[in-house]
Amino acid sequence: METEKSIQQMGGEARREKLTPEQRSESSRHAALARWENAPIDPNKPRIPRATHESDNLTLADMVIPCAVIEGGTRVLSERGVTKALGGKRGGAHWRRMKEGGANMPVYLSADNFKPFISNSLQVALSNPILYKSKNGGLAYGLPASLLPEVCEVFLKARDTKGGLHPSQKHLAVKADILMRALAHVGIIALVDEATGYQDVRDRLALQEILKKYISGALLAYASMFPLVFYKELFRLKGWPWNNGKMPSVVGHYTNDLVYHRLAPGVLAELRKNNPVTETGHRKYKHFQWLTKEIGHPALNQILYRLIGMMEASPTWEAFKIKVDTKLPRWDRTPLLEFGEDAKA
Predict the structure, then answer these.
(1) Could you tell me if 75 and 192 are in contact, meaning their C-beta atoms sit under 8 angstroms apart?
(2) How far, in Å, CA of 110 to CA of 103, rounded?
(3) To 10 degrees, what angle do helices 228-238 and 296-312 make?
(4) Of 85, 152, 277, 296, which residue is 20 to 30 A from 145 by alpha carbon distance?
(5) Helices and strands (H, E) in the chain, number of each type
(6) 112 touches 101 (CB < 8 A)
(7) Residue 241 belongs to what H/E stretch?
(8) For residue 150, what are the CA distances in angstroms to 49, 117, 322, 325?
(9) How many other CB atoms are found less than 10 A from the CB of residue 198?
(10) How far apart, in whole angstroms, are the C-alpha atoms of residue 215 and residue 271?
(11) Taking the CA atoms of the chain, what radius of gyration do you get in angstroms?
């Protein structure tokens, strides 16, 4: 037997009918989160982590994305904020949609033409957003901050592939390009830490974790890691005669400046400690012999070939230095900003 609806129920249904599909879904999302937040504690369900630090003002170029550091030190970006930054009108995990035969993806990556450019690891991460409790007690979805460059790469790869990007999606590639340029100046992790104030409570353990990934505990077997072209380009830009590759002592200074100072924070200081100058005035080993095979060596390779590319594209030492200080800044200095056509080259 049908029960008679109350005036409140009828009024609620009337209000709901006036809402757009997006507004109805948004209302349902808030109701679901409220039920989740107020539900009795279930010991069999994982505990929702809380934000320890938050900010609504993480600024990247002309975009502002809310961010947080949650318990355990995970840095996250508001999923809704990322969607808005990329030019979307909708956001949050509620706006995910299931593509037939595909993963449950954020709306900005849900189009079928993006699938070839999304790695399996990125697909898994985006399909499982981090649910956390903000400092004001509300629930929110977060995207691991370190994934933002990977998300941008999807749009840029689609743009650079013939037929990979639909005309209506061009704004996504433009936004991604702007974000990547902004991120080139300073790492996203450092940005989140600065915006939330988390850098004030970081201790040496965070740096030690970085150093463990880059520095090998045991000396690696000797192998030449520096391509000859790196030194030939250095000699060309400095105007030095090649002279069968005989290296003046100042080359060591340039190697530290161009390579090790830009590899990762604290790495050069740790290398100098592990590989001190001997009584003869020289170091017993090459610095790169102390780098780990898993992290240190690949990172060194990557930075060397980026430097070689900038060297080959530079007519003078001064032009090269502007490029490298802009696009690959030292960890111990404030990065330069790009100005003029020469900086864009």
Answers:
(1) yes
(2) 9
(3) 40
(4) 296
(5) 14, 7
(6) no
(7) none
(8) 24, 10, 26, 23
(9) 22
(10) 8
(11) 25
